[in-house]
Design a protein that fits this description.
Layout: E1 4-11, E2 16-23, E3 27-36, H1 42-51, E4 59-62, H2 74-87, H3 92-135
Antiparallel strand pairs: 1-2, 2-3, 3-4
Length: 139
Amino acid sequence: MIIHTCLTIIFDGSFYQGIFEVHDEKSYSIAKITLGSSLPKTSIIINLINQRYRLLNFHQIDDNKKSSLKHTNPKRLQRQAAKAVKKHTISTKAQTALKQQLNLKKENSKKQKSKNKKQIAIDRFQKRQIKKIKKHQGH
């Protein structure tokens, strides 16, 4: 099994963000992390990859397209990396995956808030009923 991992660092106007893309034979996963407002140093990036990589929350998407990952000349990889640095864009697949992940989080938090609100209303109603019953018991 071949796993292809790519880290893209972008500046979104106020913060530097790292976007991890992981391709394997069956799926495509993506994770996003905020690196701070100043340009991240190489030591910070290496620390992130070596120690905090396993703590990232990857959002997984089934990859319909079969990508063939074959050996590429290292000089060609360097040229492609330099070209990608000049390009300053994220792949549209990564953008859609991040948007999907954000929408899922929003939906889950809305459901949770709604549940909590209903439970609070039920508890309040039950307290009023108990208070009403105690009021009419007579002493």
